[in-house]
Amino acid sequence: xxxxxxxxxxxxxxxxxxxxxxxxxxxxxxxxxxxxxxxxxxxxxxxxxxxxxxxxxxxxxxxxxxxxxxxxxxxxxxxxxxxxxxxxxxxx
Length: 92
Known about the structure:
Blueprint lengths: L13 H8 L2 H10 L11 H8 L18 H4 L3 H13 L2
Helix pairs in contact: 1-2
């Protein structure tokens, strides 16, 4: 059996490895995170407050991406399916 040696594997190589494995959504997220053209920022208390305070619509467009993760992808996973069922049970 032949074994290929990898001499160097950078964290920025992970998205390409994910693409090869067919993990397109995860790869797209990491490519966004590693994109040097996007400004870096820290999630501070004010930004977290917008999210947890139900005011996520007040975030700057550069602070989020709503085109990568879709519900059709997320609902493939049992943890999401359980959460959705729980939400439906509690809707008045």
